[in-house]
């Protein structure tokens, strides 16, 4: 289930949305697109040609701002020795010179996106994709014990090339805290 939370400039959690329509509506001002694709078999490691063959129709629907030139696949499991360094790299707020799309083949991940004066936290899971436009400041986390596999599709032939914003960010909750707070909020709403 997708979830989107809005944070103010100080990192205070302001509002939460969990249905697709509301998530899309509140992502729209940032130029970020969100959706679902069917999970189809892909050859490993599944370069751009394989992804384009499997998802030709879906990729065409993304429109002209998302012309893709490279693809790779990232898979992380709890205890992966690469994760501490990768986590710092992904968490540090950055921009790409062109579009970046992530399609989750399994597991979950959390994006932080700049939105106006504040931030949006977008939690995605398997079958969901997010398309970030060129230049949007963002970060990503998957928690202390990452468990996801995602296709990464890039508008630039070099793949993942990032420009750090170097911005001093407020203390936004990392993946594990985000999920815990989200579950608390959903529980409170259900109790009414
Ligand atoms: Fe990125």
Which SSEs are present, and which pair or pack?
Blueprint: E1 3-7, E2 13-17, H1 20-27, E3 33-36, H2 48-54, H3 56-60, E4 70-76, H4 83-91, E5 94-95, E6 100-115, E7 118-125, E8 128-132, E9 138-141, E10 148-154, E11 163-164, H5 175-191
Antiparallel strand pairs: 1-2, 1-7, 3-8, 4-10, 5-11, 6-7, 6-8, 6-9, 6-10
The site of fe (ii) ion has 5 residues, from loops.
Q: What is the overall silhouette?
A: globular
CATH architectural grouping:
Sandwich
The parts where pLDDT drops under 50 for at least 5 residues are: none
Terminus-to-terminus distance: 20 Å
Count of individual beta strands = 11
What is the third-level CATH name, the topology? Jelly Rolls
Helix content: 10-25%
Cofactors and ligands: fe (ii) ion
Number of helices: 5
The CATH H-level superfamily is Jelly Rolls
Explain what you see.
With 192 residues, this protein is an alpha+beta fold. It has one domain: Jelly Rolls. Helices cover 24% and strands 34% of the residues. The chain is built from five helices and eleven strands; from the N terminus they run ββαβααβαβββββββα. The strands form two sheets. Strands 1, 2, 3, 4, 6, 7, 8, 9 and 10 form a nine-stranded antiparallel beta sheet that branches. A two-stranded antiparallel sheet has the order 5-11. Strand 6 and strand 7 (118-125) form a beta hairpin. It is globular and about 45 Å long. Residues 94, 96, 100, 138, 162 line the site of fe (ii) ion.
Describe the structure in brief.
With 192 residues, the protein is an alpha+beta fold. It is built from five helices and eleven strands; from the N terminus they run ββαβααβαβββββββα. The protein has a single domain, classed as Jelly Rolls (Sandwich), CATH 2.60.120.10.
């Amino acid at each position: 289930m997708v979830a989107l939370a809005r944070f103010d400039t100080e990192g205070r959690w302001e509002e939460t949305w969990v249905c697709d329509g509301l998530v899309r509506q509140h992502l729209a001002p940032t130029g970020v697109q969100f959706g679902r694709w069917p999970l189809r078999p892909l050859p490993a490691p599944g370069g751009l040609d394989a992804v384009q063959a499997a998802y030709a129709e879906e990729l065409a629907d993304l429109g002209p701002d998302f012309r893709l030139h490279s693809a790779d696949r990232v898979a992380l499991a709890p205890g992966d020795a690469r994760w501490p360094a990768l986590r710092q790299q992904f968490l540090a707020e950055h921009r790409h010179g062109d579009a970046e799309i992530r399609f989750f083949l399994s597991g979950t991940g959390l994006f932080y996106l700049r939105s106006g004066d504040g931030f949006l936290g977008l939690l995605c899971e398997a079958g969901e994709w997010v398309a970030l436009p060129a230049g949007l400041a963002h970060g990503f986390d998957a928690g202390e014990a990452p468990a996801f596999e995602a296709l990464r599709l890039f508008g630039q032939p070099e793949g993942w090339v990032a420009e750090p914003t170097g911005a001093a960010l407020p203390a936004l909750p990392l993946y594990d805290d985000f999920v815990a707070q989200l579950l608390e909020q959903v529980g409170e709403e259900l109790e009414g």
